[in-house]
Each structure stands twice: as C-alpha cells, then as structure tokens.
Write a structure and sequence with these properties.
It comes from Streptomyces zhaozhouensis. This is Acetyl-coenzyme A synthetase. The protein is α/β, with parallel strands linked by helices. Helices cover 32% and strands 21% of the residues. The protein has 21 helices and 30 strands. Strand 19 (385-388), helix 16 and strand 20 (412-414) form a beta-alpha-beta unit. The chain starts with a helix and ends in a 9-residue tail after the last helix.
Length: 653
C-alpha cells in the first residue's frame, strides 16, 4: 500500500470509532493496558484466576532458563474440568455448549451437562484401551462433536493429543503418528464434504501400514456417514459401542500447569513437520482470557461461531479450549460455506442467532466474490462482533465484512497470532481501540511486541521490518516435540533474546502495527523488498477484482518477478486490456517497481480447508515446476484448472 493510500485509509477509519454503548459495556478497558504495563506478571496472575485450580499457583513465571518458560508451575488443574464440569456445578448444565450443524442439514444441541457425560464416557474408554497419563493419542476427524469430545477426554486423563487435519494424506498422518509415538488413533468412517460422504478411515488404514506407525494398538471409529470401510478385528473399535457402554461419571485428575496438553504439527519450509508443544495452565489462561476480551464475550447471551477446522490451532484455541473454558454457547459446522448454496454460512448465522463470528480473510474475499446480494438475503442483525484470523486482511475485505455482514455497526477484530503463540497476541479491542481496516494495531494487555530492523533495533513509526516478541507470554510454545535444538534454531536465533515470529510488519504514523505476511512471502525485486500482501491489497482495491494471490518467481533480470493470480468479481469474463489495466493500477498504488510481470485470471485459488492460500503451489506454477503436495487443498482439481489457463509471459516494460 502506498503512503498516500495508507494516509487516506487512516483518515477514513476515524468513522469506525466504537459506539458509546459498546465502550461502556466492554469486558476490557483502557485501564487493562495501564495495569499490564505497570505489572505485566501481576496482570497475568490475575487472569489465571479466571480458571479453577486444585492448587492455586504462587509463582507466575519461571524464566530462569530462557527461552524455556514455565508459567504457574506450582499450580495444578484439569483442563476438561475447567471447560465442562465447573459450568455444570455452577448451575449451567442446561446451557447449550455446542450447536452442531451437519453439512446435510442434520443438527444437534449439546448442553454442558450432556457434554460432561459424553466426555466422561470417552475418558473411561481411553483408559480401558490402556491410555495412561502422558501417552499420546492421534485424532483424525471431521468437524463433528466427537472431535471436541475426544480432545477433552484426552485432557481429562492427562494424555496429550495430536490432532491431524482430516484432509491430510495417509503419509502426513503416518509421519505425525510416528513422531508423537501415538498408540491410539481416533477417527471416523468419514464426513460430509461438498454434498457427498468423504471417507477418512481408509487413510488411517494406509497410514498404519507405514513402519513408524505400526505401534498403534487401537483405532476408535465414529460412525458418521455409514460408509462401508475396511475393518481390522481386534484393532478397530466402534466409538458408539466402546464409548457408549462406559459409566457417565468420571472424576478428573489435576495435573501440573506445565503438563503437556497437546502437540500440533505445523509444516516447515523444508524437512519434517514441527511438533509444537503446548502445556496446560498458561495456555488455558491465555486462550480463555483473549476469547473473553477480544470478543467481548457475554456467555449468558452470546452465540459464538468460529469457522475454522478442528485440525488447526484456531480450532484448538477458539473452538475448543477458549470458548468452553468461558462457558460459551458455540456453533460447530461440518461443511463448506457454499454447500448446498452460497448463502449457507449466513443461513446458519440467522438460524442460531450468532452474535460473534470469527473467520478467515480468504473466506471473506470468497463471499465478496459471490456478490453483495447473497448476505443481504439473510437476517444478520444478531451479529455484534466480527473477527478475522489466519493472515493479514486487506482493508477492502475488512470494510466489506463490516458493511455487508456486520451491517455497518459491528466492531471488527483483526487478530494476529500463530500455532506457536497458542493464543491471540495483537488485536483491536471492541469498545476500546479505534478500528483501522487492515491493521492488527496493538499488542493485547500483557503482550510485548514490536517491529525491528535487520540488526534487531526497534524501528521508528512509519517504518517496516520484522515482528518480534520481547517478553514471554503464558500460551507460548514450550518446545518442538523431541527437538529442543530445532526450537532454539527456528524461533530464538535470529534476534538475541527475542522470539522471531517469521512475519514482516510495519508501524504506521501512530505506531500501530500492520502485518505484511510471512517473511518468506516478501519478494526481492530489483533490490527492493516488496510484500505479497501489499500487492494483493492493491489488486483487490480494483473494482473488478474479488480475490488475488501474489508470488515471486525467479527472474534472471530482477531476481524475482511478481506473478499475480486474480479472481474477477461475479465470475465475469476477462475483458481485453484488463491485464494491463491491473498492472497500471498496482503501479499507481505502490509504484512501478511493484507492477506484476504476469497477471492471470482464474476461477479459484488453491486453498486449504482453513481458508489459507497455498502460495507455494502458485510459485510452482509461476516457475514451471512440478507441483508439490496438493493433499491439503480443499479441492486439488483447482490446480489443473489454473494450469489450463496459463498464457505465455508478457515482456515487461
């Protein structure tokens, strides 16, 4: 974004100041920033009191061996008790915990009392299968209630879980089972996806033929679709038979605050996936606090919906642990936003009276592409806070989200955080901060973050560099499972004493933070560092463009050439001259150096189910390489469609 465009945008954002009634009722106020600045550890100790501890911690942070942190280390608690039992004991057993909506239209409302019974039964079942405290359990599931129940059952007995995204290949599943040394796998026969059953169990069977995964004793299978599936007698067990016959009462055991809660694998640019380890007390403190603060949660009246998948960290933190620790009522949806029609999400918002919605920028841009008239056909007046997660949101999508989904009245919280951070770190707060479309803005109370240059020096307002975290935080990853050295090398070696997030960022004139995407997505063009996010934002600001993805391709003259893939609004055909018009538009917004060398109009972009664009696959296309692994895509056939439209590269001017 050019300096002129940025200045114009900030002038425009003054009209997004929170209404007085929102500010008056906010869960967190400006005083929280002051309190956290004055006594950061005292502030986090206060947030830990949101939880129920069997033994209250007396020590907040042990940072004697950095960067290996211990938070609330002498405290003891049970995560499942905090997410389920204590709400029943407080008289909220009849409150709906989960409104499940299946893709075919089936639905189920699960109260906290019912959730307590089912989690207790699942905990007994795992114990019967020989799962003990500290044993790892792999979970490979669709978006169904049993996925949440399985996670909570593991937490209840102190067995760290490793959730694997349900669209990952058998090889990816096997790698994760082997690395975590899981002995039990929980899966289902399949789930519903794009109007049809999609099998999962065969991938488990194939994964368990790999030598590293051969130590799995049992596979616990939920019957969801009724598909015929292979069956190994003695190893495979039906969930409804094994779990269904267990006692409905189970006494949870308290564990040390630093007891491992889960391992979640995130891909590196090279090598095997990294097993990010999160522990118990600090993680639960921060996800509960941030969910309460950032969404201004009122558990007695709100209906919350996070559209992420359970297989990603957003699903862990803001579908399972954060909302349930706060006693929230939430929606769990199995399917895609356009099955059976493009208004499916808004139909769900209307049906359940959703008040808090948390989704990804790519999903927002997809809905923009489908047209303004689709959300206009539904009653979305229940919404009062909108959230964005997963990657930087371009200002145009931010404004569309607020105007067409929020009716021009809702705050939008643009959150930055990662699998590694465990919980939200940078975000506006409803009723407290002035909204700036496209900016994550300000570290949350208790979080210390800044932007530094190549030498680790904090940059001045109006300058850019690298986003770093300067102080430990409760939900931080503790290490990479089984590889402390990789943990040190990956996150703590670039800037001494600071966590390097891997993201580029800049400060505006007010000192607010704007995320520029992964440093890997910063292109070097003729000696200039250019963010893919900035070029994408410039393209989407053109009235004909609904979505854009930009990559840098090796170029002998400029080091890298900018290649853009765009989706036209309303599915309109590409008109003659549009490519040159778009190139000129970017040059006007960002300068001639940022003008794309190639622009290709496509029908869809390669996305994971969580909504992230797989830019590495677009880079493969731009550099005419064989495509890498496409198994994580929602629709792998998208790559064939993109390749079929490839033109020859134009000469630059």
């Amino acid at each position: 974004m050019s300096n002129e465009s940025l200045a114009n945008l900030m002038t425009e954002t003054r009209r997004f100041a929170p209404p007085a009634e929102v500010a008056a009722a906010a869960n967190v106020t400006a005083a929280d920033y002051e309190a956290a600045a004055e006594d950061r550890l005292g502030y986090w100790a206060e947030q830990a009191r949101r939880l129920t501890w069997e033994r209250e911690p007396t020590e907040t942070l042990d940072w004697s061996n950095p960067p290996f942190a211990k938070w609330f280390a002498d405290g003891r608690l049970n995560v499942a008790y905090n997410c389920v039992d204590r709400h029943v004991e407080a008289g909220h057993g009849d409150r709906v915990a989960i409104h499940f909506e299946g893709e075919p239209g089936d639905s189920r409302a699960i109260t906290y009392a019912e959730l307590q019974r089912e989690v207790s039964q699942a905990a007994h079942a795992l114990t019967e299968l020989g799962v003990a405290t500290g044993d790892r359990v792999a979970i490979y599931m669709p978006m169904i209630p049993e996925a949440v129940i399985a996670m909570l059952a593991c937490a209840r007995i102190g067995a760290p879980h490793s959730v694997v995204f349900g669209a990952f290949s058998a090889d990816a599943l096997a790698t994760r089972i082997e690395d975590a040394d899981a002995r039990v796998v929980i899966t289902s026969d399949g789930g519903y996806r794009r109007g049809a059953p999609s099998a999962l169990k065969p991938a488990v069977d194939e994964a368990l033929t790999r030598p590293g995964a051969a130590r799995v004793r049992n596979v616990l299978v939920v019957r969801r679709t009724g598909q015929d599936i292979p069956w190994t007698e003695g190893r495979d067990l039906w969930w409804h038979e094994t779990v269904g016959r267990q006692p409905e009462e189970h006494t949870p055991e308290a564990f040390d605050a630093e007891h491992p809660l889960f391992i979640l694998y995130t891909s590196g640019t090279t090598g095997k996936p990294k097993g990010i380890l999160h522990t118990t007390g600090g993680y639960l403190t921060q996800v509960a606090y941030t969910h309460h603060a950032v969404f201004d949660l009122k558990p007695e009246t709100d209906v919350y919906w996070c559209t992420a998948d359970i297989g990603w960290v957003t699903g862990h933190s803001y579908i399972v642990y954060g909302p349930l620790a706060n006693g929230a009522t939430e929606v769990l949806y199995e399917g895609t936003p356009n099955t059976p029609h493009q208004g499916r999400w808004w139909e769900i918002v209307e049906k359940y009276g959703v008040t808090l919605l948390y989704t990804a920028p790519t999903a927002i841009r997809t809905c923009m592409k489908w047209g303004d008239e689709i959300p206009a056909g539904f009653n979305l007046s229940s919404l009062r806070v909108l959230g964005s997660v997963g990657e930087p949101i371009n200002p145009e999508a931010w404004v569309w989200y607020r105007e067409h989904i929020g009716g021009g009245r809702t705050p939008v919280v643009d959150t930055w955080w990662q699998t590694e951070t465990g919980a939200m770190m940078i975000s506006p707060l409803p009723g407290v901060t002035l909204a700036k479309p496209g900016s994550a803005q300000t570290p949350l109370p208790g979080i210390s973050a800044t932007v530094v240059d190549d030498d680790g020096n904090e940059v001045a307002n109006g300058s850019g560099g690298y986003l770093t975290l300067t102080e430990p935080w409760p939900s931080m990853l503790r290490t990479i499972w089984g590889d402390d050295q990789r943990f040190l090398d990956t996150y703590w070696s670039r800037f001494e004493g600071r966590y390097f997030a891997g993201d580029g960022a800049k400060k505006d004139a007010d000192g607010d933070i704007w995320l520029l995407g992964r440093v890997d997505d910063v292109m070097l063009v003729s000696g200039h560092n250019i963010s893919t996010t900035e070029v994408e934002s410039a393209l989407v600001s053109h009235p004909r463009i609904a979505e854009a993805a930009v990559v840098g391709a090796t170029d002998p003259q400029t080091t890298q050439a900018i290649c853009a893939f765009v989706i036209l609004r309303g599915g309109a055909p590409q008109e003659e001259g549009l490519v040159e018009e778009l190139r000129a538009h970017v040059a006007k917004e960002l300068g001639p150096i940022a003008k794309p060398k190639r622009v290709l109009a496509v029908d869809e972009l390669p996305k994971t189910r969580s909504g992230k664009i797989m830019r590495r696959l677009l880079r493969d296309i731009a550099e005419d390489r064989e495509l890498g692994d496409v198994t994580t895509l929602t629709d792998p056939a998208v790559m064939d469609l993109i390749q079929s439209k490839l033109p020859s590269a134009p000469s630059d001017d």
